[in-house]
Amino acid sequence: MNVLLDYLPEFRTGFLGTVSLTAASGALAILLGLLIAGFRVSPVPPLRAFGTAWVTLLRNTPLTLLFLVAFFVVPQIFFPGISPFVLATLALGFYTSSFICEAVRSGINTVPLGQAEAARSIGMTFVQTLRIIVLPQATRTVLPPLSSILIALTKNSAIAGAFSNTELFNVSKLLNDQGRPIGWIFLWIALAYLIITFAISGIFRLLERRLEVAR
User: Fold this and answer.
1) Of 68, 125, 195, 200, whose CB is crowded by the most CB atoms within 10 A?
2) How many CB atoms lie within 10 A of CB 196?
3) Do the beta carbons of residue 18 and residue 159 sit within 8 Å?
4) What are phi and psi of 102, to 5 degrees?
5) How far apart are CA 3 and CA 9, in angstroms?
6) Distance between terminal CA atoms of the chain?
7) Are the C-beta atoms of 159 and 63 separated by less than 8 Å?
8) Residue pair 6/179 in contact by the 8 Å Cβ criterion
9) Can you give the three-state secondary structure of the chain, one letter per residue?
10) ABC transmembrane type-1 domain spans which residues (predicted)?
11) Which residues of 164-183 are buried (b: 16+ CB within 10 A; e: fewer)?
């Protein structure tokens, strides 16, 4: 307990850093995942090809390699002086978007094809059909895997600590370098991650119950 109380400001800063990284990169991943999933089921061949290439490339690239590209290539070529938080958000968001895309696409495939055909027969565009007819029904199927993906994102955010970001893993390195008991440090760090992941699970359970009532 002394480790926690003596370094409470550092733990608080690290906890808020992890929450911020998870929230920002999670929002980016969901937006990109929905967009790329739309590309994957689009009737336009170039969009389908782009969506397939996006998922194939990012799902099969180690996350650490994406961080290296984000921190050592992107600032040199595109955006010099960009903050480490933004770079970490981009790396985590892009990587996670490929998994969210596949979860959304699998949910879209559970909606009967006849509903999309009926929507097109009354003059709805592809985007309108996807937004109004297909995605609302696919949401029930997508929520459980989406919860697991965001929990994995929370744990993946620990990599950002090695790239000049203040988060829980970075705090553990700081305290370990000061000679504090590593076992107690890891215990408090693990409890902090559990709080975040339980919060994500709770939010998605509430969403699932809401949709069950609506059904």
Assistant:
1) 200
2) 20
3) no
4) -70, -35
5) 11
6) 47
7) yes
8) no
9) CHHHHHCHHHHHHHHHHHHHHHHHHHHHHHHHHHHHHHHHCCCCHHHHHHHHHHHHHHHCCCHHHHHHHHHHCHHHHCCCCCCHHHHHHHHHHHHHHHHHHHHHHHHHHCCCHHHHHHHHHCCCCHHHHHHHHHHHHHHHHHHHHHHHHHHHHHHHHHHHHHCCCCCHHHHHHHHHHCCCCHHHHHHHHHHHHHHHHHHHHHHHHHHHHHHHHHC
10) 15-204
11) ebbbbbbbbebbeeeebeee
Confidence of residue 208 (pLDDT cuts 50, 70, 90): confident
Cβ 108 vs Cβ 139: under 8 Å = no
- Whose tokens are 């389908």? That residue is 48
| Mean pLDDT value across residues 103-112 | 90
Per-residue pLDDT of 44-102, as tens digits, reads 999 999 999 999 999 999 999 999 999 999 888 887 888 999 999 999 999 999 999 99
Cα 165 from chain centroid (whole Å): 17
pTM: 0.90
